[in-house]
Amino acid sequence: MSDGSLLKALNVSRRYLDVVQKPQLERKEARWLIETTVENFAKYYNSGFIEYRKSVAEAEDVAAVEWNGRGATFKDVLGREFIDCLGGFGIFNLGWSHPKVIAAVQAQLGKSALPTQELLDPLRGMLAHLLAEVTPGDIQYSFFVGSGTEAVEGAMKLAKLYTGKSGFIAAVHGFHGKTAGSLALTGKAVFRRPALPLHPNVYHVPYGDAQAVEQQLRIAREVGNDIAAVVMEPIQGEAGAIVPPDDFWPSLRRICDEYEVLLIADEVQTGMGRTGKFWGVEHWNVAPDIITSAKALGGGVMPIGTFMATPKIWQVFNENPFIHTSTTGGNPLACAAALAAINVTLEEGIVEQAAEKGAYFKRQLEGLAERYSDIYRGISGKGLLLGQHFVNDETGYAVASGLFKRGVLISGTLNNSRVIRVEPPLIISYREIDTILDRLEDTLRSLRSRVVTPLPAADSEPMPFSAMSLYPSNPWAAFA
């Protein structure tokens, strides 16, 4: 590394920090930032993002580079405003830049940003206590990390240490992260296949089929594949807001108890009120042995994840507190954000808002699906974790890109757009929801003339979308 390259790096850093310090950019500066961002992604980060991000592909002559946001709206560097119907895939439950969360982080930043690693960090203790107050059943202890996939990895490790077993059962179409351990649980070949082989002794069953779980446990017992835990999302997010049958989670609890395996609820996306309950499992009054959380736990301001368990299970950590550690996990800034996020969630009735607004949003989407039955297959989900199921990927992508052109950000990529998730901040107003619906119907009207799909029979009814609609009536028939 030459002195010249270091001098160049110094000058570049000064230019970038100057942009960071500015609350607003002039149009010329904004244009420079757009061009620089596209070039930086293409040359130094990942050129694939430029191809697949609709913020580039559907923004006419310039890319949409995000700049700031408040509540359920954000602006790009050119000042164009968008309604956020994506919510960072569950990060922005409290919206963009909630003032109470920002204030908590700023106050802590004035004292210390990172822990000594040797003294006791008070905020870590505060957050662990607060989580014990809001989690179901006997969940009491927490460990803090930086992301959802780390939380799942920690839950897997804890389950293995406690049970002395190595195996796991997860669901087809489930999503638990992309690091090696959590990726082994994830039930999508597009993510798993390039990284094989992964964690051994992991088995996938159809989501929502408790019988399939029990049969897999029975087989595992007979052939000696020791199972430590069953890991499931209360409602599958990545698969398209898929809700299981009402007897699924109670049956899982009974089956896990009977076979002496742990039940892990991956609440990284469903927790903190997203589905209209504080935790997704509360829809079925089930208390798991281990819960993971992340995304919205940081209040849309700081990254933080956690895995939590009962005292009985946690004893293996208490006996050796250094068997699982993290240098930056649970740092004071992240914990301050999480403390404020839980406070706001309770104080502002965020869970109740999600339930009521979600029910309204879903009714309106179901009405659209009925009127545009040549475009939709159905609507799924609970609270403000909803899925619009379209007839094909092309239609879904066209809807997502059409909405983006109309100032609404929603999830849709070239990889899989058949299901478009509706996941706005839980503080979104009814006026903003109605605006989204109006722009969605305008998009659907514009598509109808160029989307050629067979209409359903006149006497057919809209298909009720559930977990079991993804699978054959008897998914185990081939193995009988």
TrEMBL record:
Please provide the record's keywords in A-Z order.
Aminotransferase, Pyridoxal phosphate, Transferase
Which metal ions or organic cofactors does this protein require, according to UniProt? pyridoxal 5'-phosphate
Tell me the GO molecular function terms. transaminase activity
What name has this protein been given in UniProt?
Putrescine aminotransferase
- Family membership: Belongs to the class-III pyridoxal-phosphate-dependent aminotransferase family.
Q: Which PROSITE patterns match?
A: AA_TRANSFER_CLASS_3
Q: Which Pfam families match?
A: Aminotran_3
Q: What residue ranges are annotated as transmembrane?
A: none
* Organism expressing this protein natively: Ktedonobacter robiniae
Q: Which domain of life is it from?
A: Bacteria
